[in-house]
What we know:
This protein is an alpha+beta fold. It has helices at 3-6, 24-33, 83-97, 132-151, 199-210, 212-219, 225-240, and strands spanning 14-17, 20-23, 36-41, 50-54, 62-68, 105-110, 113-119, 161-163, 170-172.
Amino acid sequence: MPEQAANQHHDGNAIQLEHGRVHRRQILRWLADAPITDAQLLPWGSNYTFAVMLEPVDAEPLIAVYKPRRGEIPLWDFPAGTLYKREYAAYLFSRALGWHFIPPTVIRDGPHGIGTVQLYIEPDDTPLRRGAEYGCRVQQLRQIALFDLITNNADRKASHYFVGRYDRRVWGIDHGLTFHVDAKLRTVLWDFCGEVIGPELLAPLRHALRHRALLERLLRPYLVPAELERLWQRIRAVCDKPIFPLLNPRRNIPYGW
Length: 257
């Protein structure tokens, strides 16, 4: 199956759920407004994360992942109580770039206070391996790797990207450890190190630079000025030298990968 066929319905405007395709705007409304009727603590992860049931009045119930601010374990290198904002900023920025691999995400109040609520995408049981399917998805993986580079993602584990069960597209999750001012990139996406970044991936970055003021207004409620400045510096560096960097395996692999 050629890559074009694999991506033909992946324009980001609609998402394939178990009961059919739903427009992203509708999903965002449900995530923001639908009553949360159940919350179950997920037994993994360093922060308190909950699977929640949302019950819209006009649709089937749906599952989301709720990360409350109060459940964030303090870290020595990230300001306390900011991870949910970074998670949401990553979603907003990915959408602004036209990259649709992060599930719809909102900030709202929940059973344990304010936090992010993100649509749960059910993973396919078949792992993403090398071969024909990997070849179809490789550009999606390059996009995620580049996004991690410019957002300075400190936590791209193998479990943080997967193929969705109902749409067979690549999704990326867990972006709370992003946008730090210091170099923090830690990733398991090593496939592209030393590879030239193609024009189709650079075009959204150059567009972002041209519309910096607009994007800063979008992100300013969630990131401090120094973090925004470093974001633009990373983007300019990639545009000036469009090569995926060679990484040091002693420093650039996330903890618990």
